[in-house]
Write a structure and sequence with these properties.
The complex is a heterodimer of chains A (216) and B (372). Chain A has 216 residues and is an alpha/beta fold. Chain A is 59% helix and 13% strand. Chain B folds into two domains: 325 residues, Alpha-Beta Barrel (TIM Barrel), CATH 3.20.20; 37 residues, no CATH class. Helix content of chain B is 42%, strand content 15%. In chain B, α8 packs antiparallel against α9, α9 runs parallel beside α10 and α14 runs parallel beside α15.
Chain lengths: 216, 372
């Protein structure tokens, strides 16, 4: 019974049925299934399937977006119960698009997928000054900084953030992940980033690994 | 040979005396950078647009032969447009603005990057039928008949000029945002997105037909799409094929009927999953073949799709920020690609800030040394 309900949450999430996911999460809570189980075996399980399919080009951006919307609908119901049960996120990531760049689709996709892994995200938005990122890292228990840039004109903003973290003496406190259309592994290496991923699903997987590494 | 003959000969696998030096314009920030360095005037920098007088003036200064994005067409946007409204001004000066397409954007002062998509009006059947469909109808105001009647006598005979066919999906994405497009595809009214694509496509077909019926002659036709990003298309290739293939075919068949056999399509990002739909339905020139996402794959794609696949682009523009040795290395690669035929090198997007003025002149001079 419990397994069937969790399976249904996962399947509805994969199909982007936000209202159904919210209703099923409510039903699961009413049946006294633990919030952590609902999160991991229902919602996160569904997002992982979507993430894997996205990486393998079996589904595309729209399917990920509607699945993430369904995930958020479920999380909204689940969050009070998670807090009540003392369930903590795996870690915290700061995410933004760098100074001069207003693009946020890729950043939002990565954020949704990372949250889908049970990681808390501080979303600083777009066109973010390096100093704001430095201040956020200093003032919060953050393990990961995720930087997006869509343009060849703004990609060097990622280096400015890494330099600012170094200058502030905070570089060792966090891992830095970079991504965006013009970014390559070579560029990531050149600017001293810890990680580059090609797509949002890989970013979420790497985020989990990097945070575990920092917390070890 | 004129540059028009050179370009058209190369794209038809016929001999040409040399390669034309072709470009795809500039980021405005680069032109201002060059003006600050005293290389060009600020007036020239500020007045530049694809195919205008400033573009031709810059071509002379830099040694380019022409800009591939020299296209003309109908007005195929919403008509009348939505009124542009500032909905909110935030404490940091960021404005939430409803633009002419009904898309709500966040615009930050001093940031030249395209705005951030915040919300959209086209969320359901009622919004489509009452707000959008009426603005997607064909009307004579969309076509400058007088201009096209005299087009053959007034156009620059030295350079190729394309008929802009609009887009099948790109402009719709601009109206509803990537997120909105995704939700419309999957929300409850399954027919809505298809109806939207059909209504918009029918109007653009009529625009192209009206222009071609004036007798205006074009060297090529051109689409703008930009519906892919760095890891693939913005929607499933199967859905794209189902919704869009018939519209490419209809518009491209019309072009063929009027003697246009070169049909180019501008799409950034990783396009490979959509190539079959485009090629099977009459598109034959990929542009601008971004190196960042295509890598050095043009040759492999040619082997896969055959000589029917043509290309304009594929030149790694980032070498123009480096030095002559880097440009020479890129030129050597372009010589090899050019030897395949049906390929005209062109920087793989707008030239970006940091591009060296003298290296552009050097490249434009050297690319002309490629003989076909």
């Amino acid at each position: 019974m419990e397994a069937a309900l969790l399976q249904e949450i996962s399947e509805k999430l994969q199909r982007g049925k936000a209202k159904d996911v919210a209703a099923l999460v409510t039903q699961a809570l009413e049946q006294n299934i633990s919030p952590e189980t609902i999160l991991n075996e229902g919602l996160v399980c569904g997002m992982n399937v979507i993430g894997d399919k996205f990486r393998q080009n079996e589904v595309f951006v729209p399917e990920v977006l509607v699945a993430a919307r369904a995930m958020n609908a479920g999380l909204k119901i689940l969050k009070p119960a998670l807090s009540g049960a003392g369930i903590e996120p795996l870690g915290t990531a700061v995410i933004c698009t760098v100074k001069g760049d207003m693009h946020d689709i890729g950043k939002n996709l990565v954020k949704m997928m990372i949250e889908g892994q049970g990681i808390a995200c501080i979303d600083l938005g777009v066109d973010v000054d390096p100093q704001v990122i430095v201040d956020t890292v200093r003032d919060n228990d953050v393990q990961l900084v995720c930087l997006s840039a869509l343009l060849t004109t703004t990609m060097y903003g990622q280096k400015e953030v890494i330099d600012a973290l170094c200058t502030a003496g905070l570089r060792d406190k966090v891992r830095v992940m970079v991504g965006g259309a013009p970014i390559t592994q070579e560029f990531a290496d050149e600017i001293g980033a810890d990680c580059y991923t090609l797509d949002a699903a890989s970013a979420a997987r790497e985020a989990k690994r990097l945070i575990a590494e920092m917390r070890a | 040979m004129t540059n028009r003959e050179r370009a058209m000969n190369i794209l038809h696998y016929r001999p040409a005396d040399r390669m034309p030096a072709v470009h795809f314009g500039y980021w405005p920030e680069l032109l201002l950078e060059w003006a600050e360095q005293g290389k060009i005037s600020f007036e020239l920098a500020r007045s530049w647009a694809d195919g205008n007088a400033a573009d031709s003036e810059l071509d002379k200064i830099l040694g380019w032969d022409f800009n591939w994005y020299r296209t003309v067409g109908a007005y195929n946007g919403l008509l009348p447009t939505f009124e542009r409204k500032v909905l909110e001004v935030m404490p940091d000066g960021t404005q939430r603005v409803q633009n002419h397409d009904g898309l709500i954007e966040r615009i930050r002062p001093g940031v030249t990057s395209i705005p951030s998509e915040d919300d959209y009006l086209l969320k359901d059947r009622e919004a489509f039928e009452t707000l959008y469909r009426p603005k997607m109808q064909f009307c004579p105001e969309r076509v400058n008949y007088e201009y096209f009647k005299h087009f053959n006598d007034t156009r620059d005979p030295d350079v190729p000029v394309g008929l802009h066919l609009g887009s099948v999906l790109g402009n719709i994405r601009s109206m509803v945002s990537v997120v909105g497009m995704s939700y419309l595809l999957y929300d409850e009214d399954e027919e809505l997105f298809a109806d939207l694509v059909d209504a918009y496509a029918d109007m653009q077909y009529k625009c192209a037909e009206e222009i071609l019926k004036t007798g205006a002659k074009f060297d090529f036709a051109h689409y703008w799409e930009d519906i892919c990003f760095n890891s693939g298309p913005l929607l499933s290739p199967a859905v794209f094929d189902e919704l869009c293939a018939k519209h490419y075919k209809k518009r491209n068949d019309l072009c063929h009927d009027f003697g246009i056999d070169i049909i180019s399509l501008d799409c950034d990002g990783v396009t490979d999953k959509l190539l079959p739909t485009w090629f099977e339905n009459g598109v034959n020139v990929m542009f601008p073949i971004e190196i960042g996402t295509w890598g050095d794959q043009f040759e492999a794609a040619r082997q896969k799709y055959g000589k029917g696949m043509l290309g304009v682009g594929g030149m790694d523009k980032t070498v123009l920020r480096l030095d002559k040795a880097a440009v020479d290395k890129e030129l050597a690669r372009l010589v090899r690609l050019s030897s395949l035929g049906g390929f005209i090198p062109c920087p793989d997007h707008r030239l970006m800030p940091g591009t060296k003025f003298e290296l552009v002149q050097y490249y434009a001079e050297k690319i002309k040394e490629i003989h076909i």
